[in-house]
# Entry
Amino acid sequence: MKLLLRFRWVAVVLFIGLLSFAPSLWAQDEDELEELGQEEVKCEPDTIITGYEKFKSDTVSEQQIAIWYSFGQEDYKYKHYEKAIPYFWKVAMNDRTGKFKVVYSKLADCYYRLGKPDSTLLAAYAGLKRFPNYARLHFWAGFVHDRLGQIKCAIPHYEFMVKKYPNQKEYWSKLAYLYYKVDDPKAIEAQQKVVELDPKDLEAGRLLAEIMSHFGEDPLKALEDLFKKDPSNVENAMRFGKEAYNAGEYEKAIEAFKAVLKVDPKNTTALEYLGRSYEGLSRYTDAIRTYKQILKIEPKNVKIMSLIASVYAVMNDFTSAMVYVNKAKRIDPKNGLPYMVAAEVYESAVT
# Structure
C-alpha cells in the first residue's frame, strides 16, 4: 500500500540575496509598494516624456553639468530626493557623452524611495533608451516590474542580468522564480545553474527537485544529489527516500530512511517507509523486524499491526498473521483495516 507524496512549491523569496547589490535601495520598506497580481501590461512606454525636456540645450557646458550633478548628489546623499530629482534630470538631458549615465539609476532610486514605481520605470527606460546595455537600469526595471506583479515584463531584464553576470547566483535564483511564476519550464535550467554555482545550498537543491516535479520531470536524481551532500539532513533524506520508494527504487529508499533513523531513531514515518521498502525487495523478515520497532514506540498502532499480519500472510505464516489481526481488533474494534487484512489472510490460506 503506497503512501502518496506530493511536493508543494514553497513561496520563498529568492531575491533576498540581491540586497548586497543595490547600493542604497534596500533601506526602503518593501511594504510601501503593493504587490499586484500578474496582468497583461505594456512593459516599455512608447514615448518617454519626463517634463524636463525644456532644460535640454546644446549650449550647456560640461562644467555646468558637473555642477548640477554635484548639487543633486548632495541632496541625494542627505535623502532629499525631491530636491535631487530636478538636478539629475538636468544632467540627464544635457549629458551628451554618457559620462553621467549613473544619474538614471539615481533617478530610479529617488523615485522608488518616494513610492513612485511608475516614475522609477520611466527613469529606467529613459536610461535604457540611451544605454541599452546598462546593467543597473535592467536591474531597476526588472525589480520594479516584479514588485508590481508584472512578471513577464521583469523576465527579459533578469535574462540580461544573467548574461551579464553569469556567475551571480542571486540573479539566476530570481530568474528561476520568475520562470516558475509564469509556468515556463526554463525554470529548471535556471535553478540547475543556481545549484551548480553553490553546491552547498541545500535549499536550492530542494527547490530544483520541486520545480522538476512541477514540470513533470523526474526529480529523483536532484533529490539524491541533495541527500548525498548531507545525509544527516532529515528533511532532505525523507524527501529523497519517499521519492525513491514511490519510484520503486527500494535500495535507495532504504539508504535514505536508515540515514534518517541514524539521526532520529524514533521517527516512525521513516521506520514505516523502511519496512515497506524491505517488502518491496521481498525482505519480509527485515520488514517485520522494522514494523515491530514501531510497536515498541507506539504499542497500539493498529495500522502497523495490520501490516505485520499482511507480511506474515505473504510468508504463509497464517497463525502469526491472525495473532496480529486479533490484537488490532481488540485495540480498535471499529477500525475496518484489521478485518480487511483478516479476509486477505483467509483467502491466502485457502488458495
Notes: The CA atoms of residues 10 and 207 lie 8 Å apart.
